């Protein structure tokens, strides 16, 4: 196998893995929303410290289950989702959060 073919194979695998992860996250969100979970999307993360601060805040404050994918969060508890929104603010949130 030539170097060019190895690079193409490696890049193809990376692309495939990213697509698979995105599809799995989408399925997880759809399943969770069907079960009454609440989706919250942050507009953006400011920097790595911001992401760490959010992770720490979730660890200390969220009582129910949750899942995270970058700046996208799904919370089992509407209360947890609302507290998260109040603390971190959002520009884009699920229609089921009132």
Notes on the protein architecture:
- This protein is α+β, with helices and mostly antiparallel strands and 98 residues long.
- It has one domain.
- Helices cover 58% and strands 14% of the residues.
- The protein contains 3 helices and 4 strands.
- It has a 4-stranded antiparallel beta sheet.
- The longest helix is centred in the N-terminal third of the chain and has 32 residues.
- It is elongated.
- 10% of the residues are buried.
What's this, in brief?
The chain has 98 residues and is of the alpha+beta class.
Question: Which helices and strands, and how do they pair?
Answer:
Blueprint: H1 3-34, E1 38-41, H2 48-61, E2 66-69, E3 72-75, H3 78-88, E4 92-93
Antiparallel strand pairs: 1-3, 1-4, 2-3
Proportion of residues in β-strands: 5-15%
The pLDDT mean sits at: 83
What is the terminal separation in angstroms? 57 Å
Largest sheet: 4 strands, antiparallel
Helix content: 55-70%
**Number of DSSP-assigned strands:** 4
Physical arrangement of strands within the biggest beta sheet? 2-3-1-4
**CA-atom Rg in angstroms:** 17 Å
Which secondary-structure class do the elements indicate? alpha+beta
SSE pattern, N- to C-terminal: HEHEEHE
Features:
14% strand, disordered C terminus, alpha+beta, 4-stranded antiparallel β-sheet, 98 residues
């Amino acid at each position: 196998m030539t170097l060019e073919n190895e690079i193409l194979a490696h890049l193809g695998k990376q692309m495939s893995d990213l697509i698979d992860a995105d599809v799995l996250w989408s399925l997880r969100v759809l399943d969770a929303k069907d079960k009454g979970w609440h989706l919250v999307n942050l507009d953006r993360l400011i920097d790595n410290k911001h992401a760490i601060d959010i992770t720490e805040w979730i660890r200390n404050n969220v009582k129910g289950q949750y899942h995270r994918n970058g700046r996208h969060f799904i919370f089992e508890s509407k209360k947890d989702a609302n507290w998260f929104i109040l603390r971190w603010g959002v520009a884009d949130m699920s229609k089921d959060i009132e």
